[in-house]
């Protein structure tokens, strides 16, 4: 759906649809922050400078801010105040604006990224990588130490000495359901996802309810019970016991 007023060329919609961006404005572009939350802004020139992008974003004084263009492959490129971007070219529809006077470099899946803030969250790293948050982990590659998973809301300090290296990996966790091993591809499972691991043909019913007990879980839910409507964080080796009960 076009989020701009009628007559505004939505650059992102045009590129996503695979059609050419029209030659004349006004143009609707996406401007985001360090959480990669984007809002639509309108500019009138097909070729804009970094200063124009900062102005339409309300970033004043401009000297206190940095602007990055989000390229088609997800990489970021600094747009200096005097540099221009042609909105009619693919990959010119999204920008990020930071209140910062310097950028911070890190590696993500062996690709270099420059970021305009000293901290970045695991969830933002996933968005930059273009991966599904639910089924992908971000790992911090600790040189000489033990790699660790970065949770979506966890912030990593990019200002520390050295260049941080992040790696994305598909989630594969083996749990035990009624003593049988089951491999899952996400870290949070719902009540019914666990029931179906035990009873693949199970469906909601007035006659049968399923009781779920679990143990050997992560610290936030080490052990307990699960009822319909709830979910649980899982880890390798976690144990579930699913028991059907006839209510009649």
From TrEMBL:
Q: Which residues form the Multi-ubiquitin domain?
A: 42-99, 104-170, 174-246
Which InterPro entries does the entry link to? Multi-ubiquitin_dom
Pfam families with a match to the protein in the record: Multi_ubiq
Q: Which domain of life is it from?
A: Bacteria
Entry protein name: Multiubiquitin domain-containing protein
Source organism of the structure: Roseateles amylovorans
Traced from the root, the source organism's taxonomic lineage reads: Bacteria, Pseudomonadati, Pseudomonadota, Betaproteobacteria, Burkholderiales
């Amino acid at each position: 759906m076009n989020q701009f007023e009628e007559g505004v060329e939505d650059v992102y919609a045009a590129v996503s649809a695979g059609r050419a961006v029209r030659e004349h404005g006004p143009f609707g572009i996406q401007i985001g922050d360090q959480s990669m939350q984007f809002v639509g802004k309108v500019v009138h020139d097909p070729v804009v400078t970094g200063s124009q992008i900062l102005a339409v974003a309300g970033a004043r004084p401009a000297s206190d801010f940095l602007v990055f263009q989000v390229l088609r492959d997800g990489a970021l490129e600094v747009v200096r105040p005097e540099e221009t971007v042609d909105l009619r070219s693919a990959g010119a529809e999204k920008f990020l604006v930071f209140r910062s006077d310097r950028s911070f470099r890190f590696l993500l899946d062996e690709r270099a990224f420059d970021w305009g803030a000293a901290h970045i969250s695991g969830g933002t790293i996933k968005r930059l990588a273009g991966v599904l948050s639910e089924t992908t982990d971000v790992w911090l590659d600790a040189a000489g130490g033990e790699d660790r998973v970065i949770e979506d809301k966890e912030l990593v300090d990019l200002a520390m000495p050295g260049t941080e290296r992040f790696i994305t990996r598909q989630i594969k966790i083996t749990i035990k359901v009624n003593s049988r091993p089951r491999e899952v591809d996400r870290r949070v499972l719902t009540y019914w996802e666990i029931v179906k691991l035990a009873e693949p043909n199970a469906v909601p019913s007035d006659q049968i309810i399923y009781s779920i007990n679990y143990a050997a879980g992560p610290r936030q839910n080490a052990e307990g019970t699960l009822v319909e409507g709830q979910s649980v964080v899982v880890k390798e080796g976690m144990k579930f016991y699913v028991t059907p009960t006839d209510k009649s």
